[in-house]
Amino acid sequence: MREQFSFRLFRWIMLIVLAVFVLVPLYVMLTSSLKPLQDVQGDFQWWPTHLTFQPFIDIWNTIPLALYFGNSLIVSFSATFASVIIAVFASYAISRYRFRGRAAFSGIILATQMFPGVLFLLPLFLIFVNIDKTLGFTFLYQTQLGLIVTYLTFTLPFSIWMLANYMDAIPRELDEAARVDGTSAVGALLRIIVPAARPGIIAVAVYSFMTAWGEILFASQMTNSATRTLSIGLQNYSTETNVYWNQIMAASLVVSIPVVIGFLFLQKYLVAGLTAGAVK
């Protein structure tokens, strides 16, 4: 009995510490976004003495935030859509077919996750620049398409590996029954396997979207003023003469809304997909 009480007490203490660790920065971000700039730059106050929503209005005028927001949405949704489509077909082939080089292909996919992403920055830069030079016009470098292709190099290996493990857990009898009824392999995939693998597919989609939405290193080198995403655009609130801290906090809250809403609605699918797909 004493052990149970001690365990519950320890659990509650850890939960409280974790909640404080997570909620205090969010509280500071929220209160700072509701303060005038002079209050943020002055002595720190836990509660703003002059509440104002002006920073949430100014964020759209200080920098072209709407442009960056649109670029991030286009790049993130496009990278997510392409990653899911390619991963579904590739993982189905790995899971259901035995072909020469299958084990090597699966091993290479998993091995790519061992390397830090910064190692691919210079090779991708050289590839994009040389392709554009060959074509004679800007096609990949500093374009949305180039950034989408870049993010696919990160999201596809993990997505294929996780979905392949997830599909391994789906009984093959479902495929066989569909084939007996005259359905093609693609038809069996789209009509039988995809609905059964929905939690795994949603987990892959959330992973791909969050990777593209918050990435900063490649976005800083592969974009220009017209294709810049939010992760880079938010830096423009800092100028040579001033740093608009209240607008940075307000913009950070605004750009977090799509990810937070999506995670809350898809949380159960994400947990189910990661749990089933990560353990073979």
Structure summary, number of beta strands:
0
> Roughly how many Å is the radius of gyration?
23 Å
Our measurement of the CA-to-CA distance between the termini, rounded to an integer number of angstroms, reads 38 Å
By CATH reckoning, the class would read: Mainly Alpha
Helical segment count:
13
Q: Tell me the CATH superfamily.
A: MetI-like
Provide the low-confidence segments as ranges.
Answer: none
- The dominant shape is globular
Largest sheet: none
Q: What's the CATH topology label?
A: MetI-like fold
Topology as a string of helices (H) and strands (E):
HHHHHHHHHHHHH
Strand content: under 5%
Short description:
The chain is an all-alpha fold and 280 residues long. Helices cover 75% and strands 0% of the residues.
Give your account of this protein's structure.
With 280 residues, the chain is mainly alpha-helical. The chain has one domain: MetI-like (MetI-like fold), CATH 1.10.3720.10. Helices cover 75% and strands 0% of the residues. Helix 3 packs across helix 13.
Secondary-structure map:
Elements: H1 2-33, H2 37-41, H3 54-62, H4 65-96, H5 102-111, H6 121-135, H7 144-168, H8 172-180, H9 185-196, H10 198-214, H11 217-221, H12 230-233, H13 245-278
Helix pairs in contact: 1-13, 3-13, 4-7, 4-10, 7-10, 7-13, 8-9, 10-13
Task: Please supply descriptive tags for the structure shown above.
single chain, 280 residues, mainly alpha, 13 helices, 0% strand, globular
